[in-house]
Specification:
Elements lengths: L4 E7 L2 E8 L5 E5 L10 H8 L4 E5 L18 H14 L5 E6 L1 H12 L4 E7 L19 H4 L5 H7 L3 H9 L30 H14 L2 H8 L4 H19 L4
Parallel strand pairs: 3-4, 3-5, 5-6
Antiparallel strand pairs: 1-2, 2-4
């Protein structure tokens, strides 16, 4: 772990914390999910850098030691992909192998759609591609966790009344195959606790995550869910604008 370097890169109007290790022409960009950090990829950073890859794992906007812009509308895939493209530009990397997990998988899918010229190959886990990402997905219930995350400040207040490490373990240790729900009657405190720590995470790891979330809070990460419905209309607008510019440039309009 001590071999991993930590730097701050200015990109797309924010300062982004980046963990990296290795050198060479083959670069891998790791994109974490919720509720995670660059730290999710610590083992992969060490393992793949030893094989000759340049490995890069940022804290996404709103997470850890990266800046957290205020409005939820500044957490769309367009913003986050822009952050990552700016990161690659700052590191003078033209193309990467892209690896995503959870929310990082969604961002990685959209990265490939928006900037395929910067991607050599994609490896995604946990979240399949969906052409219409939305918070209004099956199961359609107000208790579904994505719906419960929509109201600004509501879940933050519930999390603030609990130990941060316990909040994180409720998410990281969740193993029920059914969609996670947070009934308003019981709140997040009623969300099931894992009986034991999973084998892949230690108490030391939980403490690291908790210390970072105690500092940066949960609003930034939750804003990804609050801006999710903006992606489709923004994508449509962008493609129409590009079409308009191209037709104007060739004198069709």
């Amino acid at each position: 772990m001590e071999k991993i370097e930590h730097t701050t890169i200015s990109t797309n109007g924010i300062n982004m914390h980046v963990a990296s290790i290795g050198a060479g022409p083959r670069a891998i960009l790791f994109v974490h999910g919720f509720p995670e950090l660059w730290y999710t990829w610590r083992h992969q950073l060490l393992s793949l850098s030893s094989l000759g890859y340049r490995c890069i794992a940022p804290d996404l906007r709103g997470y850890g030691d990266t800046d957290s812009p205020g409005p939820a509308a500044q957490y769309t895939s367009f913003h986050v992909v822009g952050d990552l493209v700016g990161l690659l530009d700052g590191l003078r990397i033209q193309q990467v192998f892209l690896v995503g997990h959870d929310w990082g998988a969604i961002i990685s899918w959209h990265f490939c759609l928006l900037r395929p010229d910067r991607v050599r190959a994609l490896v995604n886990t946990s979240v399949p591609f969906s052409p219409k990402t939305s918070s209004r997905v099956s199961p359609m219930t107000d208790d579904f966790y994505m719906c419960r995350f929509q109201e600004a400040g509501e879940m933050e207040a519930e999390f603030a009344g609990m130990d941060t490490g316990k909040v994180l373990m409720k998410f990281l240790g969740y193993r029920d195959p059914n969609p996670p729900c947070i009934p308003k009657e019981t709140g997040f405190v009623g969300f099931p606790d894992p009986p034991t720590l999973p084998s892949w995470i230690s108490q030391e790891d939980v403490d690291y995550y908790a210390a970072k979330y105690d500092k940066s809070g949960f609003t930034g990460p939750l804003n990804y869910y609050r801006s999710i419905d903006l992606f489709v209309p923004l994508t449509l607008f962008s493609f129409l604008f590009i079409l308009f510019v191209r037709r104007v440039s060739i004198g069709k309009w």
